[in-house]
Automatic annotation (TrEMBL):
InterPro entries: DUF2797
Natural source organism: Halomonas flagellata
Top-rank taxon, per record: Bacteria
Taxonomic lineage from the root: Bacteria, Pseudomonadati, Pseudomonadota, Gammaproteobacteria, Oceanospirillales
Name the record gives this protein: DUF2797 domain-containing protein
Pfam families: DUF2797
Length: 287
């Protein structure tokens, strides 16, 4: 069989079988919609080209751990087998809540992984997916992180030296702004655009003393303001759902419908929506 790479997209009518990875999303050029690629095993499938046409995904019942490849009856933490979920640093609570980083207590699950991933520049950003939210990400995950959330706008605000520091800054921002995306609202329609630079200035002024405290703790230049321009994203959506109903392979292994749109990690079908990231590792047949 010839090698299948990102650039050799399979003919759209061929059924494909493989374990799902999260959707690969590339930002569109200025004013153009994001490009979505479904990844199932070694197969790559251009979803933008399928818009307006029927799409079927059928779960075979198999799940392979996204880390070790082992078969698992259930998926933990969006794609891991139970042993990996309990063992890997990337599955630890401190990834979701970086302010709980316990590296310095000597209890990091994988100190070397932590050094490579957590002790790297992190960015605190504002985004608009379903309204204003704060978030953190590794510098290298920009803009993937925002596209995964279905953000229509984003603005890097501060840069720090570690994931833990970004967690402390995020906790501070959460006094004023949510850190959550309301996925139903995100999928329901056009999100109203905001002036993120003005929001940034407002929040930085309000949080000034809190930020000064963190700088006292981590060093005067530990939390650096970024002077970047807001970015905007467009998603390929023909029609937003009036009512958001979600598909779930665990309940109904066959998901079919007309593909009406792609936003964040969701497929929008005329029969309902599905968060494909939630089913990372699920083996599906795509047709
Ligand atoms: Zn595993």
């Amino acid at each position: 069989m010839p090698d299948v790479t990102d650039t050799t997209l399979i003919d759209a009518v061929t059924p494909l079988q493989g374990c799902l990875a999260k959707l690969a999303i590339a930002p569109g050029a200025a004013g153009e919609v994001a490009r979505y690629t479904l990844r199932a095993g070694e197969h790559r499938f251009d979803l933008n080209a399928r818009l307006g046409r029927p799409l079927a995904l059928e779960w075979t019942g198999a799940i392979a751990c996204t880390h070790c490849g082992r078969a698992t009856r259930k998926s933990f933490g969006q794609g891991y087998c139970y042993p990996c979920f309990k063992k890997l640093a990337q599955c630890d609570t401190c990834i979701m809540k970086p302010e709980l980083c316990h590296y310095f207590e000597g209890t990091c699950r994988e100190p070397e992984w932590g050094e490579r991933h957590c002790f790297q520049p992190h960015v605190v950003y504002l985004a608009n997916a379903s309204g204003l939210k704060v978030g953190i990400t590794r510098r290298t995950q920009i803009p993937t992180r925002w596209l995964d959330q279905g953000a229509v706008q984003a603005l890097p605000v501060l840069e720090v030296d570690s994931r833990q520091q970004s967690g402390f800054v995020e906790v501070l921002f959460k006094e004023e702004v949510s850190d959550r995306t309301n996925w139903r609202a995100m999928l329901k329609g056009e999100t109203e655009r905001m002036d993120l630079a003005a929001e940034r200035d407002r929040l930085l002024a309000r949080l000034e003393s809190g930020l000064a405290n963190l700088r006292e703790r981590f060093g005067a230049d530990a939390i650096r303001p970024l002077d970047e321009a807001p970015v905007a994203f467009e998603y390929p959506v023909l029609e937003f759902p009036a009512k958001v109903v979600s598909h779930n392979f665990d309940k109904h292994p066959l998901v079919t419908g007309i593909l009406l749109g792609l936003k964040g990690q969701y497929l929008i079908l005329d029969s309902g929506v599905i968060n494909l990231r939630k089913f990372t590792g699920y083996e599906v047949v795509v047709s």
